Amino acid sequence: MTRQKHSDKALDERLEEPDEQPEARGILELIWGAVMVGILADYVIRPRLVGAAGHLPSIVTFAALLGGVQVFGLKGLIVGPVLMSLAIAVLRLYAIEARRRRSDLLAKGPERRSGA
Fold this sequence. Notes:
Elements: H1 2-16, H2 22-50, H3 58-72, H4 76-108, H5 110-113
């Protein structure tokens, strides 16, 4: 039991010690956060996850991230943007196909459109 009291006393002393340079630690943490978020996340990780070839607007990616996290939890950080990219790709393919069919119908002329 004396050993327990001794360890509690040592822990209390460590917790009560003031931080030696809180300003320096705060500045260091600010620099670390700016480097990790501002540079590494935006210019290294995001292009690799989202892809440089994808022309998905940033606001759509942001909405996909938030929606993915809301629906799928932590996995949604990956699943949300992937599903959004797939949905936009399908809609773009549909638009291209619809435009092609419409131009084919217009090229045939009015006499062949009726089917008679």
